[in-house]
Amino acid sequence: MSKLTAPHFVRAASRRDFLANAGTGFGALALGSLLAGDGVAAAVKGRNAMAAKPPHYAAKAKSVIWLFMEGGPSHIDLFDPKPELKRLSGQPLPPSFGKVITAMGTSNNTLMPSQRTFKQYGRSGQWVSDWYPHIAQHMDDIAVLRSCQADGLNHVGSVCQMNTGSILAGRPSLGSWVQYGLGAANENLPAFVVLTDDKEVIGGPNNWSNGFLPATYQGTLFRNEGPPILDVLPPKTIGNDQQRGKLDLMASLNEHFGRDKQTDLDLESRIQSYELAYRMQSAAPEAVDLSKESDATKKLYGMDEEITEKFGRNCLLARRLVERGVRFIELYCSSGSGWDAHVDMEENHSKNCKISDKPIAGLLADLKARGLLNDTLVIWGGEFGRTPFNEKGKGRDHNPWGFTTWFAGGGVKPGQTVGSTDELGLRAVERPAHVHDIHATILHLMGLNHIDLTYLHNGRFERPTIVAGTVVKELLA
Amino acid sequence: MNFSKCSISLMGLGLAYAAFSAESGVKEIFTPVQLRHWSLQKVAKRAVPSIQMQEWVATPVDAFILSKLEARGLTPSKSGDRVTLLRRVSLDLTGLPPTPEEVDVFVSDQSPKAWEKLIDRLLASPHYGERWGRHWLDVARFAESQGFKADETRPDAWRYRDYVIDSFNTDKPYDRFIREQIAGDELWPNVAEARIATAFNRHYPDEYNARNLMQRRQEILNEVTNVVGSAFLGLTVECAQCHNHKFDPISHKDYYSLQAFFANTAADDRIVIAPPQQVQEHERKLALWEGKTREIREEISAILAPARKKIWDDFFDKYPPEVQEAITKPDSERTPYEAQLYHQAKLYLDPSKDDVVKSLRGPDKQRYQTFAKKLQEFASLHPGDLPHGSGMRDISAQAPVTHVLAGGTYLGRQEPVQPAFPSVLSAELPKIQPAANGSTTGRRTALANWLASPENPLTARVMVNRVWSHHFGQGLVASPNDFGVMGKRPSHPELLDWLTTEFVQNQWSVKKLHKLILMSNVYQQASTHREAAAKEDSTNRLLWRFPRNRLEAEAIRDSAIHVAGVLNSKVGGPSVFPVLPENMPSPRGGWSKNPTAEENYRRSVYIFVRRNTPYPLLKALDFPDTNMSCGRRDQTITSPQALTLLNDRAAIDWAQNFAGRVLGKAGLDPKLQVETAYLLAYSRKPDGWETDTVLTFLEKQRGIIQSRIAKGESIALPTNVPEKGEPARLAALVDFCHSLLNSNEFVYQE
Asked: Which end of chain A has fewer CB within 10 Å, C or N?
């Protein structure tokens, strides 16, 4: 909490504050959530909802960078080699695998082996295909979770679930829960930022929605051109001194109006919200201004090559946002379902891997070099993986039953592979990890217990993992 | 697979865990504490309490409030001043502040009936329905697009919005309002309005790209059941989707029995809105046109056939075998369940001609265009499309069997159930009469009649509480969509019951209910803080003063446009697409570009509601998520809100218009300008301190702007620039006007 706002946001001598201050950690949070929520929006009123709050227990990660390969990257062509597929190439899925309903009705199609070459890398000897040569150099910093599971068959439900836990829109996204639980480390910037590099994400703002949490906690989509946040700058017809003059007048008029209403802290909060807005007006453009970054840094992220320029730029932005205290940064790679290789795996993934390989490797190297990787959790994955059987001869269909997500940095035990899929890569078999488990693990690393982080909505204490989720302990350092 | 959304524990409420069996009756499953929960008991006739401070009581509402205040040794606040009261009730009933002329009329009206006359005038204004209809649209999770991936437009959804506005404006009895929305198609099949009303259950988010239609159907049914539970009963029935409700006495079986009323529903997107003669005339003309164009149309059909088949095959191939089977069976052999799947699939398998044409490429497209041109020659004979709307209906009189579903998924079929009311509320079996012509099951009529019955302990109470909640910013029950065990207890249960009884006795008239509340002294109290009272009741739950509340998004925007003098007061019609923030690309599903001034200045209730991307300015100010029913909006205070109202081009434009209006009224005299602006924005004159402060600001700002002009920078001028005006001074006036529209006094209702 900044010095300027601190004294104004504390509601004096109310029962709520007495209770909220009576404990820390879970106690304080649970009370906050008891008092907030549907119908009792009063609890949101008059308090700074974004003030930093203590975690449930010591956090390993201060920030998250989620590299979201939207459309569904093929685990069996990247991190989960399946020699058995080669042997069964051209044959149908063995009957022992049972019935499969897929998005495109492809389950009767023949099995298609990967055309990639896999090798083991680093001291940890983890497998990576030749599509990701740069990331392969960092395998000793990475924990690969091969046994992920989700519930959706199509993109919109699955991207939504990876963000919110549910395939149906309307629940808060994980970044919103994190903001609700921890507040902002730097109130001059949004605490939950979304970056895209191509088209609109499937499902759009539902994926960074606050859902039933107050609007304060929604994610902010940064624009790629012009000012990063809509309306963050006044139009050209209003100069900076002029804006300051208006804000000063508003503050005077508001204080005059509030002179006999000093107990109403909403009025004071609203005055402060304009000051914050004014600070954001300079802080946000500064955060995305890469002019002070060296050429060497830009090159590290692949910004010197056309194919890696866009995503590389977003990866560099992510590092800058982490440095400035942003808690949750989501980067969609080939946004708008670019990884959705129904027709031609080779063509699609060759391109998308090229787009993402060098920037991600650069990000990992840069974070490490600057000492940021220790408390920044980096996640790579998609909304699902892809099927071992072909679609239209050269493509692969959606596979939510078994796929790969990897983790690096903040509190992760690096250089290991956790879980496995069956011999064809269709289903998770060993240590299956549902989306809820992934969410529980991320929250855990950020110092939040997914069961204790609750919000009363329509008569239920809602939590990020709904009614499920266990922390994937194997991933923890 | 669909994960349930239930809560995690009983949080020490002392309720026993309900047995996880759908077999037993609610009496065996739930504890007496749950069964005796207050909101499930019949509405009781309540005597008006006797109180000390008789002179304060204008209506029985006052006596109920006063009785609780006196019990705590509190006194009510004195009446608010006349201008404050006028602003309060104008914003409350119409979402707009009064004009300076309206202020004069009310302040100078010394008759004892002045307040009542004012209320009557506002309730008769068409803006009343726009304001209060919007409250209901929150509950109905109204949106004009599908949501999910493509978020396609639902072109006729706005007709439901107009239906709601019109229902409030005409003071449609609430019991009729319910019947129309639940079963208008069954009860009044020949009344277009009643059929449009059924769109209440058509507002579910939908995904055209769904393959597993069994799952998709179940998700829609769950959504509809849950919204009906929240909206009309104030119950969180969704908690019983996977197992018995953990808090309220609603069993797993109750949930699916309630859902069974909707088992045979489907979207009905071709409701013709025209009198029979017009329909006949239309048919006659159409037949004529068809006769003259038969050959051309046959050619076109032949050209489109392969494209049509391709679309069909494309969808068909991707469906699972159960759906494929339902599609290929002859009509007569389909089970009711298969008919449901087929009906849903058909929308996509067999798209409209326009959609098929869009998929044409190359020579086919050229050939099509040739014939389309020929067809165009007969256009003058074509009678055009009859106006139509969208709603819900049953697809036949034969409903598929509803099962209790384990885990809430379509795969978890357990025992079959019949339509039935939640058993804790009614032991009676619904009387269901299928339509004689086989068109509909008649199930929803039974449900509608039960919901709209005066005997139902929840329906009227829930509505009375919604109305109270919007008048005071907080309901007597603070959780308007949850009257269950986990909801809030009523602060004044006797008052709630008394108002409910009056409401039902007054033929469910919402306007009479408003008046009953607004005529009270409780409503007319000042909002001033009183330290001693606050010590006793810090949250003002007992209403010892009128609560101050921030206006909702729509009221802020509409008030600003109104004060700027440019509000377009047209009522109803298709939605508009006002200007988006600078640099914002059109959202998926589309947003019309370059709106006319007329569209930019319509009231906010007419702004297109794109489910995935609500209008950003409203969204920033807590416009609800339309993926679910909203009983009460948040009132957050955030810096993005400030950025929006400060920097959005729409907000700057309001300020420019406002300044132009001030100039038109006050000319170039700065003092008069300040006074005029205050009267328009705040309904009052500035005090001496304010005048001095603003005049000083105008001078200083003028200097700043002058130096910007000297540097060749552009400035924002009032829309109406008088000849002799000095640009820097005029731009400073815009800044002052903009500041007023951003100020606390403007966005808070006192």
From this structure: C
Say which residues have a Cβ less than 8 Å from residue A221's Cβ, sequence separation at least 6.
A194, A195, A196, A205, A208
How high is the pLDDT of residue A2?
34
DSSP A192-217: EEEE-SSSPPTTGGGGG--TTS-GGG
Start-to-end Cα distance in chain A: 30
- CA-nearest of B619, B549, B22 to A267 is B549
Give the model's confidence band at B350: pLDDT under 50 very low, under 70 low, under 90 confident, else very high: confident
CB contact under 8 A, A253 and B4: no
Taking the Cβ of residue B738 and every Cβ of chain A, the question of whether any pair is shorter than 8 Å is answered with yes
Closest chain B C-alpha to A130 CA, distance in angstroms: 33
Residues A431-443: tens digit of each pLDDT: 999 999 999 999 9
pLDDT tier at A135, thresholds 50, 70, 90: very high
Q: Note whether B632 contacts A38, CB cutoff 8 Å.
A: yes
| ipTM of the complex as predicted | 0.91
Q: Chain A: give the shortest CA distance to residue B294, in Å.
A: 38
Chain B residues touching A238 at Cβ < 8 A: 647, 652, 716, 735
Q: What pLDDT was estimated at residue A37?
A: 34
Number of A to B CB contacts under 8 A, please give it.
293
- Whether A253 has a pLDDT exceeding 50, the answer reads yes
State whether residue B729 sits within 8 Å of chain A by CB.
no
Strand duo A192-195 + A328-333: pairing: parallel
**Cα B660 to Cα A248: distance, rounded to the nearest angstrom:** 23
Q: Which CATH superfamily groups domain A63-222+291-475? A: Alkaline Phosphatase, subunit A (3.40.720.10)
Given a cut of 50, is residue A275 above it in pLDDT? yes
Given a cut of 80, whether residue B629 has pLDDT beyond it is: yes
Whether A245 and B735 lie within 8 Å, measured CB to CB: yes
Interface of A with B in 401-430 (CB under 8 A): none
The mean per-residue pLDDT over the stretch B721-743 comes to 94
B735 and A249: CB-CB below 8 Å? yes
SS3 B505: helix
- pLDDT value for A50: 80
Contacts of A288 in chain B (CB under 8 A): none
Best A246, A262, A343, A451 residue to mutate vs chain B (most B CBs within 10 Å): A246
Alpha-carbon span B600 to B621, nearest angstrom:
18
CB-closest option in A154, A216, A466 to B638: A216
| Per-residue pLDDT at A465 | 97
**Interval A330-342: pLDDT, tens:** 999 999 999 999 9
Q: Residue A439 to residues A16, A153, B52: CA-CA distances in angstroms?
A: 30, 19, 58
Residue A450, amino acid? H
Contact A277 B646 (CB under 8 A): yes
pTM of full prediction above 0.95: no
pLDDT for residue B749: 96
Where do the domains of chain A lie?
1-48, 63-222+291-475, 233-287
